[in-house]
Amino acid sequence: MKWNAAEFAPIPEEWFRGDTLNELGPGTPDAEMEALLLEADVRSWFGGTPADAAMAEACRAGLLLRWDCLEASHRISQQNPTTTGSYWHGIMHRREPDFSNAKYWFRRVGDHPVFEQLAVEARQCAAGAPESSLSRDLASWSEWDPFAFVDWSAQCLRDPSQGADLCRQVALLEWRLLFAYCHAAARGTAP
Asked: Of 88, 93, 183, 191, whose Cβ has the fewest other Cβ atoms within 10 Å?
């Protein structure tokens, strides 16, 4: 996915953290960004009242995850009754790490609209990555498997030599695709 944070203006580009890879685990929350994101009026991100308020809040949950603010993201995604809210919830638990709970939330997601593109781009990412157990496995996926990715995240946390850098890159790719989907849905332009 070609990522251009400027497409999401007026959300400030620096809020997306560029190409910084998040940890597979919880990371260290940025309290300053957490306060800023929680205080922000999401209407300003969409030039007025968003077409879909739940997806606008999903954008907030995603940005909080990007800054390792898992608890704040959790509070928001937990209140979002959509499959996309469940998706953010699953990612949060995967990073927590609470892998069985992550799988519970991914079961609630079902087949999400970003899965098809995510599978394609994860295979491309794996093809360009150094050889690892994860790169070989991802290269064979014909469709996105969030449960297998939870397992890979757990394995790479235990043994980074299994492909932890690739796992982090794919997690960022997943984050970007899901955020873009939420943003389009909040604007009323999602397919």
From this structure: 191
Per-residue pLDDT tens digits for 57-88: 999 999 999 999 999 999 999 999 999 999 99
Residue listed under structure tokens 């910084």? 20
Contacts 24+ apart (CB under 8 A), 18-23: 19/172, 21/165, 21/168, 21/169, 21/171, 21/172, 22/65, 22/66, 22/68, 22/95, 22/168, 22/171, 22/172, 22/175, 23/68, 23/95, 23/168
Q: Residue 8 gets which letter from DSSP?
A: G
* Region of 17 on the Ramachandran plot (φ > 0 left; ψ -120 to 50 alpha; else beta): left
Quick check: helix, strand or coil at residue 1?
coil
Domain limits of the chain?
A: 28-187
